[in-house]
Write a structure and sequence with these properties.
The chain has 2 domains: about 1-120, Rossmann fold; about 130-225, Winged helix-like DNA-binding domain superfamily/Winged helix DNA-binding domain (Arc Repressor Mutant, subunit A). Helices cover about 45% and strands about 20% of the residues. The protein is built from 8 helices and 12 strands. The protein has helices at about 10-20, 35-45, 60-70, 85-90, 105-120, 155-165, 175-180, 190-205, and strands at about 1-5, 25-30, 45-50, 75-80, 95-100, 130, 135, 140-145, 150, 170, 215, 220-225. It has a 5-stranded parallel β-sheet with strand order 2-1-3-4-5, with helices on both faces. A 4-stranded antiparallel β-sheet has the order 6-7-8-9, covered by helices on one side. Strands 10-12-11 form a 3-stranded antiparallel β-sheet. Helix 2 (about 35-45) packs parallel to helix 3 (about 60-70). The termini are far apart.
């Protein structure tokens, strides 16, 4: 992956590019905002690491100009006291920010996460339809029986997504817990029960008498795309 690093602190710039190259990335760099835009246009990097405080053109302005014509992931570098800069950077379209000082390990972990998200989002997934359900992963919504799209929380969406992918098949509670929360709560069935209840309130005509998301006593849950 090609990464553009922009910072007027040449020592830090060198440390960042060294860490990225050691991790197998190809780097290009710039030390001011105007040069950053020129390098970005010429090199077409896969990711931009961009300091907020730059000479000639601020990092925030560079972020705004890049985002106006490109979806390339942008990570902003800010100082610890720069909360306003962090908020403004995110509002301008930055995908992440990292506060100084930071370790190379932290930087590389955040870079990997951004590149994974970028690769996963390269082609926007089309809504999936089955029975009465239309599941939209991009908007994190569900429509049931031709109704209006209903916004789901991240946990609700993860639960429904797994049930939807296995529609008509009973999924054990342990598998659902691991998928939604990971191994940390793999034995907390009450937590799962509460999440199922909240999801039923959004997808069932009557949450007290579910027709879609059905409990299989002593086992787990099954999703029926059409009322059974």
């Amino acid at each position: 992956m090609k990464i553009l690093v922009v910072d007027d602190d040449l020592e830090l710039l060198g440390l960042i590019t060294y860490a990225l190259r050691q991790a197998g990335h190809w780097t290009v760099d710039a030390a001011d905002g105007v040069s950053a835009l020129a390098v970005f246009a010429r090199e077409e990097p896969d990711l931009v690491i961009l300091d907020v405080n730059l000479p000639r053109l601020s990092g925030l302005e560079v972020c705004r100009k890049i985002r106006a014509g490109s979806g390339t992931p942008i990570m902003m570098l800010t100082v610890r006291s720069g909360e306003e800069d962090q908020v403004e950077a995110l509002d301008l379209g930055a995908d992440d920010y990292l506060t100084k000082p930071f370790s190379p390990r932290t930087l590389l972990a955040r870079v990997r996460a951004l590149l994974r998200r970028s690769a996963a989002g390269g082609d926007k997934p089309a809504p999936i339809e089955s029975g009465d359900f239309v599941l939209d992963a991009e908007r994190q919504t569900v429509r049931v029986a031709g109704g209006e799209p209903v916004r789901l929380t991240k946990l609700e969406f993860r639960l429904l997504q797994l049930l939807f992918a296995n529609a008509g098949h009973v999924l054990p509670a342990e598998r659902l817990l691991r998928h939604v929360w990971g191994h940390r709560v793999s034995d907390d069935r009450q937590l799962l029960k509460q999440l199922v209840h909240r999801l039923r309130l959004k997808i069932e005509p009557d949450a007290a008498a579910p027709r879609y998301l059905v409990t299989e006593s002593g086992i787990g849950y099954v999703l029926w795309p059409s009322p059974y």
